[in-house]
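Recap from last week: sequence in, structure out.
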Amino acid sequence: MAEKRDHIIVVGAGAAGLMAARELASGGRKVTLLEARERCGGRIHPLAESTFGYRADAGAEFIHGEAPVTTRLLAEAGLSAQPIEGERWHVENGVLSRRDPADRQMELLHRVLATIEQDLTVTALLDRHFAGQEFAGLRASVLGMVQGYDAADPDRASVFALREEWMGGERGGQARIVGGYGLLLDHLVAECRARGVSFAFQSVVTAIESTDDGVDVRCADGRAHRGDVVILTVPLPLLRGLALPSSMHRQVAAAADIGYGNVIKLLLRFERRWWTAMPDHDLSDMLFLLSNAEVPVWWTQHPRDDAVLTGWLAGPPTGRFAALDETMLIETGLAALAGIFAKPVTVLRQELAAARAFDWSKDPFARGAYSYATLATRGAQDVLTDWDGGPVLISGEALYRGRDIGTVEAALASGLATARHVLAR
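Predicted structure tokens:
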């Protein structure tokens, strides 16, 4: 008869950790959840309603695709998701337009992608098939998507993975949780507590040691926890800073083969929705705004009338802003908007009611935003999820094998699968 693993220690109270803890506790296991921060959620980070007029999301905000695990959780919690709606505006040579400058060449891109038989990086794809000046707009659009949406380095990002993302058939659109991700987070935490999960906050794990009868988890403040199995749900870059059993060296090395990108997210609340009163364009329907400004992507809360613009800068370009503090990042965002809309930055600053900026690379327990697939990612996932029954497993969004690696759905699905794997053993 297989040995029953009675006490499970989950490291990380983000989406994967909470989902794993809930499932394990439901299966009758004793669960201790260690979290380095003073809060749950990890890269889900709802803000106080008083700051922006709603529980704004400093981290994850959208549901991508069908997201079946997320959808089931929403139904459990009595929550709903609203498909995003509104127009996508572009700025080209200072002119606002609903037309994507690269639209006319996207069909050609898809035809080329359909013929590729061996994986290559996005940079190699563009150099090989779209090097001419006539494809400058297409290259800019592809790089903007790869860096801005996937937070990926085009020199490393897998074309096969992006082809599946872009051309993999019907996958559903994007949506927002009505009330924000904080409500789903609240539900998961309440479910864990109701099932007897113990939470230990400000528990910065530094070492995991195998013992004859289980595993010891040691924290920076001297606390130690003993259990039968540990599930690590921390972002992959943090694995290198942990003292792990020697049997895991191969897994730690494999983690470097999965891409991990950064995001800088700005939230600017104004006294009014001044962008709806532009003289030459009716932007009352604007959802997304894309440009070549230093902060190239902005979105609204449309169809709600919150006077908030969210700025988004992702991927390698975020490195240029590493030396900027929060105040300087907010000023960078205001300057970008001033250039896009030809408005004096002093006027925008006077209209600003609240502002926050989050550079996720500076969060010591995240060190970036989310994962993306490289040419070596699928093999690395095989190594990282290979469990021989030992005391430590790894889980999280980076190990998801579907189209939407790097999402909350990926984290929830991975945490659920890992927990079931433990219960089955």
